[in-house]
Design brief:
Keywords: Metal-binding, Signal
Order of helices and strands: HEHEEHEEEE
Number of helices: 3
Number of domains: 2
CATH topology of the largest domain: Immunoglobulin-like
Strand content: 15-25%
CATH superfamily of the largest domain: Cupredoxins -  blue copper proteins
Mean pLDDT: 82
CATH architecture of the largest domain: Sandwich
GO molecular function, one term: metal ion binding
Protein name: Phytocyanin domain-containing protein
Shape: elongated
Largest sheet: 4 strands, antiparallel
CATH class of the largest domain: Mainly Beta
Helix content: 25-40%
Number of strands: 7
Amino acid sequence: MDHSPTQRKSRVSASAVLALLCVAVLVDRAHAATTVNVGGSSGYNYRTWASTTRVKPWDSLFFKYDPRLHNVLLVSKADFDACRTTAPWAKYSSGKDYIKFSKSGTYYLICGVARHCAAGMKVAVTVKW
């Protein structure tokens, strides 16, 4: 059975549309946000964790801790370096905190309880595509 040029063109167009849809779905999945557990299997070695963990814009960092003993402060680099807790940009204290970053950059997070930051409970997270 010989198909007319119009029928063949219609099949090619339908195939092209289907292929484009498949590519769009794959690209969307590649950019889908995920939840990243802070510390991961390295526990409280945040420097190792941060150097080996990829965080993309729209991913959520998940901090799980005892809120009677810890919190999470988002601070400037100067406050991060000095472990200064007096003027955080944001404070999280539920013990199960999800923190989402909408754009690329380096973000500085510290524990604001007692001398925890000075003892190493701080992490610089680089967010990038």
